[in-house]
Design goal:
Layout lengths: L5 H10 L7 H10 L8 E8 L11 E5 L10 E4 L2 H10 L3 E3 L1 H8 L7 E4 L4 H4 L3 H4 L17 H9 L2 E5 L5 E8 L4 H17 L10 E8 L5 E3 L1 H5 L3
Parallel strand pairs: 3-4, 3-5
Antiparallel strand pairs: 1-7, 1-8, 2-6, 8-9
Helix pairs in contact: 2-8, 3-7
GO cellular component, one term: cytosolic large ribosomal subunit
Function: Binds directly to 23S rRNA. The L1 stalk is quite mobile in the ribosome, and is involved in E site tRNA release. Protein L1 is also a translational repressor protein, it controls the translation of the L11 operon by binding to its mRNA.
Organism: Pseudooctadecabacter jejudonensis
């Protein structure tokens, strides 16, 4: 068995016996044990009682975290003419049409969010096999297929988080950095959980939100009381 490092041992000891804690305690634990040499991302994972293979149990949505994510979001926009100019003025990192399609097809994907005007979707549609698996495909349900590219770009740059349930029924996202004030991290966690709660699909049966956990990039995780996360405690 591999010998654990001093930092890993200390973190595990700090988390020992801690389960279903309050959001406040979870943030303090995870933030306090994020001791890597870089500013670790604080990540949340929510296990849902849904089967996303059924269309009426798909969970997806977006939320503007009150304190941002701490991450610099690189935004690409498929647009032409005035809308392309609007996207550039709003701060988009990459703007194009067929030229951008060719860049993406070549495997060069230097962006974290992809936005498109509706008239660009025939072009963007050809990139489904490339963008889809990376959860980068523009979608009108989360506001990334829109004529209002200014708002979409500014929202992405301002800390908006998109989420989509995975095959195993898990939704996860980064909700800040270890350097954030604990209160700000707590507010972000509650906002994210609230958004997932509001995205409950019509086909969900039984317990919708089964488990909530918080971790940092390099640290162990801790489970949060679902009641604490949803404000029902």
């Amino acid at each position: 068995m591999a010998k654990l490092g001093k930092r890993t041992r200390a973190a595990r000891e700090a988390f020992a016996g801690k389960e279903n804690v309050s959001v406040t305690e979870a943030v303090e634990l995870v933030k306090g044990n994020a001791k890597a040499k870089f500013d670790e991302t604080i990540e949340i994972a929510v296990v849902l009682g849904v089967d996303p293979r059924h269309a009426d149990q798909m969970v997806r949505g977006k939320v503007a975290l009150p304190n941002g994510t701490g991450k610099t979001m690189r935004v690409a926009v498929f647009a032409r003419g005035d809308k392309a100019d609007e996207a550039k003025a709003a701060g988009a990192d990459i703007v194009g049409a067929e030229d951008l399609m060719e860049t993406v097809q070549s495997g060069k994907i230097e962006f974290d969010r992809c936005i498109a005007t509706p008239d660009m979707m025939p072009i963007v549609g050809r990139l489904g096999k490339v963008l889809g698996p990376r959860n980068l495909m523009p979608n009108p349900k989360v506001g990334t297929v829109t004529m209002d590219v200014k708002d979409a770009v500014e929202a992405a740059k301002g800390g908006e988080v998109q989420f989509k349930v995975e095959k195993a029924g898990v939704v996860h996202a980064g909700v800040g950095k270890a350097s954030f004030d604990a209160k700000k991290l707590e507010e972000n966690v509650l906002s994210f959980v609230d958004a997932v709660q509001k995205a409950k699909p019509a086909g969900a049966k039984g317990t919708y939100m089964k488990k909530v956990s918080l971790t940092s990039t390099m640290g162990p995780g801790v489970t949060i009381s679902v009641d604490s996360a949803t404000g029902n405690d």
